[in-house]
Amino acid sequence: MAAPTPMRVSGVVFSAPDPRSLAAFYQRLLGWPVQKDEPGWVKLAAPDGGPGLSFHEDPDYVPPVWPSTAGEQQMMVHLDIGVDDIEKAGQYAVELGAKPADFQPQEHVRVYFDPIGHPFCLFLDR
């Protein structure tokens, strides 16, 4: 059954107790401009016109445990970010406030946590 109307993914939304500060981290990391900034909501625009990233206020946000652990908050989504130099990109992410995960599953992928614990992956994209 086809959708009754065209549907487009406009963005991925992350919960945060302070959406502005988390949006500022990703704005610096990715170099994306702020498209919308209003109380409890910030959206970054993808420069290529693709889906953006949004951040909404959630005072009860609980960071996920990764790798997954039974009975703990599970990761619901994460970003895969392609880079040309994984070491330089990782150093930059850490300078901005990211933390590397203890467990690294693959040689060409590095898992990090943003400042409030959302995991994201840097991978060689060449």
Q: Summed up, what is this model?
A:
With 126 residues, this protein is of the alpha/beta class.
Fold and architecture overview:
The protein has 126 residues and is of the alpha/beta class. The protein folds into two domains: 11-60, 2-Layer Sandwich (Signal recognition particle alu RNA binding heterodimer, srp9/1); 62-126, 2,3-Dihydroxybiphenyl 1,2-Dioxygenase, domain 1, CATH 3.10.180.10. It contains two helices and eight strands, in the order E-H-E-E-E-E-H-E-E-E. The protein has a four-stranded mixed beta sheet, with helices on one face. Strands 5-8-7-6 form a four-stranded mixed beta sheet, covered by helices on one side. Strand 2 and strand 3 (41-44) form a beta hairpin. It starts with 10 loop residues before the first strand and ends with a strand.
What is the alpha-carbon Rg in Å?
15 Å
Given the C-alpha coordinates, what overall shape results? globular
Strand pairing plus helix content: what structural class? alpha/beta
CATH class category of the largest domain: Alpha Beta
**Count of helix runs:** 2
Integer tally of domains: 2
Number of strands: 8
- State the order of secondary-structure elements, H for helix, E for strand: EHEEEEHEEE
Salient structural properties:
four-stranded mixed beta sheet; Signal recognition particle alu RNA binding heterodimer, srp9/1; Glyoxalase/bleomycin resistance protein/dioxygenase; alpha/beta; single chain; Glyas_Bleomycin-R_OHBP_Dase; 126 residues
